[in-house]
Amino acid sequence: MKVIFLDFDGVINNCGDIDDYVFYPVNDKSNRIHSIPFSASNIAPLKMLFDFLFKENIKIVLSTSWRQIISYKNLDITFKNFLGFSHIDEKIIIDEIPIIYESFEAIRGNEIKVFLENNPNISDYLIIDDNFDFLKTQKNHLILTNASIGFSENDFQKVKNYFSKNKSNIFSQIFK
What we know:
Elements: E1 2-6, E2 21-27, E3 33-39, H1 40-56, E4 58-62, H2 72-83, E5 93-96, E6 101-102, E7 105-106, H3 108-118, E8 124-129, E9 142-144, H4 153-163, H5 170-174
Parallel strand pairs: 1-4, 1-8, 4-5, 8-9
Antiparallel strand pairs: 2-3, 6-7
Helix pairs in contact: 1-4
């Protein structure tokens, strides 16, 4: 199985102008309503990403801190509804990484490492995030988004290239 570890802030939204945000309601783990902030400029690239993931049977595992308050099951429904894939019964967001605190700080690279160790059926993975709190062994699996832009069409092309095994030029693309 192939998966993407997906962050939210700085990815599905651009951590910038709140006037660019589109809020979509979702129930949290206590059944209270929250609003997921999507940046309007990130919606089209996210739709392209989800379309590609459905076609290629690639799944999403949440690495965002939002996983602490909203279940991946609710987020699966929310993303499919918001991005126009509600007609697809297949789950796209299938799990979340564990929360592991080290010195009062959760390091996502270690959390992803534990998740991969506990899920040996994962044959390949990619991390989409705007931070670099990952292990050196994970850097070739990272698409680092610009937090002030969020997930872009250029980032989407990097995802396609990565999973197309066009890795000969992925390293130059990742750090542009």
